[in-house]
Write a structure and sequence with these properties.
8-stranded mixed sheet, 8 strands, alpha/beta, 306 residues, 12 helices, Rossmann fold, 44% helix
Length: 306
């Protein structure tokens, strides 16, 4: 048989094997496959991944575009690919910096607890390497919104504006949601509290993967510090009042973890804050309602002149 026929047969086998692997991942590891797809989308949009040295080890950062600087921060247990659906609309107008927070995605450390101090130190290293003294707008979802306010409080000369997306740093409880469900039923309840009721039900195989992944996820490694060092990085009302940086709170109103009431409390304390609700949307608007989130975000950025 001719060599080219053998090569063709080999190619067919490899393609079928690849499809089989993707099918298996789609059913057994859907969250990992989704994260991989989102990160691939960042690269296809034109961002390049590289690593910034830090005291925590190498930190993964996706960068690209030109113009005013936007630093986009994901939430606990998430990764930079969470912004994939809005990146194309931003790339033509801004220089984007999308890090994996310390202990998340491809960023060190790979094991052990994830301290808030390590996340802050990692972000300081990323800003030092990428911004090179230019003030930036920080857009953060959930934990990312909290870290954005911490950065604004610690480095007011670095941060020109904060856009917090269902996330903040104010001490005091918000909603109560089990973020580390141990059963499919608990995972179902968790997702119902984090998303708007109008959304389709989450499939059982995804709920099962939530339970499996939660046993060793970055979220669990971060939550492990809740009774030790995490509280050192929340801000009281006096500290929030000291933040002179303009803050916009973009808020999915269906979120039962970081409720609209929590956002209203922050808006009443921050000196320069406005609150923009996003109806029929929960805790992660950039994923749940990307078109409406993108519209609101571009409007905020345009009004801010960022």
């Amino acid at each position: 048989m001719h060599t080219w026929i053998w090569l063709l047969l080999l190619l067919v086998v490899l393609v079928l094997a690849g499809l089989g692997t993707l099918t298996w991942l789609g059913r057994k590891r859907p969250l990992a496959l989704y994260a991989w797809t989102c990160r691939r989308a960042l690269a296809k949009a034109g961002l390049r991944q590289h690593f910034v040295p830090s005291s925590q080890g190498p930190l993964s950062v996706f960068v690209g575009g030109s113009g005013p600087l936007l630093l986009l921060l994901h939430g606990a247990g998430d990764q930079a690919g969470t912004w994939a659906k809005v990146v194309p609309a931003l790339l033509g107008h801004y220089r984007l910096i999308l890090p994996d927070l310390a202990g998340h995605g491809d960023s060190a450390p790979a094991t052990g607890t994830i301290e808030a101090a390590a996340i802050v130190a990692g972000l300081e290293a990323v800003i030092g390497a990428e911004a090179q003294g230019e003030p930036l707008t920080v857009i953060g979802n959930s934990l990312g919104g909290w870290m954005a306010m911490v950065l604004a409080q610690r480095h007011p000369d670095w941060v020109a504006r904060v856009i917090a997306v269902n996330g903040g740093a104010l001490k005091g409880s918000s909603g109560s949601v089990n973020l580390l469900p141990g059963t499919r039923r608990e995972a179902q309840e968790t997702m119902a509290q984090l998303r708007d009721p109008s959304n389709p039900a989450v499939p059982d195989f995804v709920l099962d993967d939530m339970v499996r992944r939660g046993k060793s996820s970055p979220l669990r490694r971060f939550v492990a510090t809740v009774n030790t060092t995490m509280g050192d990085w929340t801000l009281d009302e006096a500290q929030l009042r000291s933040i002179e940086t303009p803050v916009t709170l973009l808020w999915g109103t269906a979120d039962q973890l970081m409720t609209l009431g929590y956002a209203q409390r922050m808006a009443s304390v921050l000196p320069h804050a406005d609150l923009i609700p996003i109806a029929r949307c929960g805790h992660i608007p950039q994923q749940e309602a990307p078109e409406r989130f993108q519209e609101a975000l571009l409007k905020v950025l345009g009004e801010a002149g960022a």
